[in-house]
Amino acid sequence: MSDTLLSVQGVQTYYGNIRALAGVDVEVKKGEIVSLIGANGAGKSTLMMTICGSPQARTGTVTFDGEDITRLPTHLIARRRIAQSPEGRRIFPRMTVYENLQMGASLDNLKYFNEDVEKIFTLFPRLKERQGQRGGTLSGGEQQMLSIGRALMARPKLLLLDEPSLGLAPLIVKGIFDAIKKLNQNEGLTVFLVEQNAFAALKLSDRAYVMVNGQVTMSGSGKELLANPEVRAAYLEGGRH
Amino acid sequence: MEYFVQQLVNGLTLGSIYGLIAIGYTMVYGIIGMINFAHGDIFMLGGFAALIVFLVLTSVFVGLPVVLLLLVMIAAAMLTASLWNWTIEKMAYRPLRGSFRLAPLITAIGMSIALSNFIQVTQGPRNKPIPPLVSSVYNVFGISISLKQLIIMLLTVILLTTFWYIVNKTSLGRAQRATEQDRKMAALLGIDVDRTISVTFIMGASLAAVAGTMYLMYYGVTVFTDGFIPGVKAFTAAVLGGIGSLPGAVLGGLLIGLIESLWSAYFTIDYKDVATFSILAIVLIFKPSGILGRPEVEKV
After folding, report:
1. Would an 8 Å CB–CB cutoff place A147 in contact with chain B?
2. pLDDT tens across A207-235, in order?
3. For residue A217, what are the domain limits?
4. Residue A102: its chain B contacts at CB < 8 A?
5. Pair (A24, A113) in one structural domain
6. Is residue A1 part of a domain?
């Protein structure tokens, strides 16, 4: 299909001798929001990083926009416009908020920086207040906003979000999810996200995958999975308040 | 009083040279967390490149203006030293980047020995003199300042300003700082980490080469072992100022230059190194991360 943006096929990833991904198939079409849910240690973040080539898949292929990117070095994958807000946020601690955002825009050498940074500041007004502050001194939630903002600065074709709701107050989570939805609807941004907050993720997503022990065990539309009793038992009930 | 100020001027000159070398140590440490022990020898190699270019130029063209001569010497030294440091990083350090921390360190010591032996074999083990290039001396309020000293200090100020600007205000500098703080994230943002590290080695080597040329001009002589002592002093300067910090490296360099020349002026010259290292030890007791160094703990 020509409208497939990202296709992961039979990917196995190892950390040393430990297999973290045991043959994963995932597909993301242009303009979709797709989420990946699963328990801790299921391999969700590993899949995110494998798409970006760090670590590289041992077997299988990752195809982006019709091009095989499995063996490309990470920085070249990023230059294909795959931006990631990774696990642990990875804010540059000794750079200011503003500089962190500049780093996000380094692909275009800051060409659209002024225009884009205003959008980010509208999305996260908190970042505007803190723009001169060092990244390492921000609170967890602020770092999360910065991490997402930095990823958006790259003008991505595909945005990878690893637990965007982690450590954030419910109200801010809602704000971020609304923002993702808006970017998706208005600008056709394709989003692939990992979430522990399965309820919110499934509600937001067009489609979703469930991952267990390094394998995709279920997939379907967000609605289907929300209604699925197994998913409900494992990821929703008891986890939702 | 005049004597004191005179020593101050001498100390600052020497300190400028140490500072220029120390920046290379500190930048490389900052970006890949290793001490490039071959850096002192890169400094020495830069001096030799300048000397060779000087000898060739003065024997081919007679009566070249000194300014032009100095500029060509500096350029040649920078080019040679950069090429060597770039090659060393690529061949000796990069393959070991994923390995345990001691491996590149030991390799660096090996590279240091290899470089000084290489110069010893190819250039001979004896002192290599250079005729005085600039010999004007000015008298200001009873203090004599030589043109050499002025050139060294002026050049240091210019280079440091340029460097400060590059590291803090340009996209290259941002890429360097990002690579230093989180290499993986830098790559995720499209930064070519290998290239950034190479550029850092080239920048460090360029400064060391300028220092090497200045050292040669100042003392009028160089020898293959010259990388060692100034290298150790500059390394000490980087540690004293706080390794990883650019202003720290310069401050450390100037301090060590001053301590050395003031100690030699008022006490016995034989113990000047003892004085330097004692002060290093004292500073490290009270401020383990150096004067301007940052503490290791960081909220992430």
Report:
1. no
2. 999 999 999 999 999 889 988 888 888 87
3. 1-81+160-240
4. 171, 174
5. no
6. yes
Residue A202 lies in a domain: yes
The answer as to whether B194 is a domain residue is: yes
Nearest CA in chain A to B299: A136
d(CA A142, CA A134): 11
Examine the pLDDT at B183 and tell me if it is beyond 90: yes
Six-digit token string for B200 = 């850092």
Please report whether residue B237 resides in a domain.
no
**Position A86 in a domain:** no
Q: Is residue A11 part of a domain?
A: yes
- pLDDT tens per residue across span B91-116: 999 999 888 888 999 999 999 999 99
Domain count, chain A: 2
Window 88-107 of B, Cβ < 8 Å to A: none
pLDDT > 90 in chain A, percent? 68
Kindly list the residues from chain A whose CB atom is less than 8 angstroms away from the CB atom of residue B293: none
Question: End of a domain among A155, A170, A187?
Answer: A155
**A4 and A56 assigned to the same domain:** yes
Does this complex have an ipTM over 0.90?
yes
In a domain, B286, yes or no: no
What is residue A43's three-state secondary structure?
coil
A83-137 pLDDT, tens per residue?
A: 999 999 999 999 999 999 999 999 998 899 999 999 999 988 999 999 999 999 9
B71 is a domain residue: yes
Residue B142 has pLDDT above 90, yes or no: no
Alpha-carbon gap: B39 to the closest alpha carbon of chain A (Å): 26
Using CB atoms, pick whichever of A79, A103, A110 lies closest to residue B178: A103
* B191 interfacial to chain A (CB closer than 8 Å): yes
Q: What is the DSSP string of A206-222?
A: SEEEEEETTEEEEEEEH
Range of the domain at B123: 2-225
CATH number at residue A175: 3.40.50.300
| Percent of chain B clearing pLDDT 90 (strictly above) | 70
User: Within this chain, do residues A143 and A101 fall inside the same structural domain, yes or no?
Assistant: yes
Q: Is the pLDDT of residue B299 over 80?
A: no
Q: Do A74 and B181 touch (CB under 8 A)?
A: no
Total number of domains constituting chain B: 1
Calculate the average pLDDT of chain A: 91
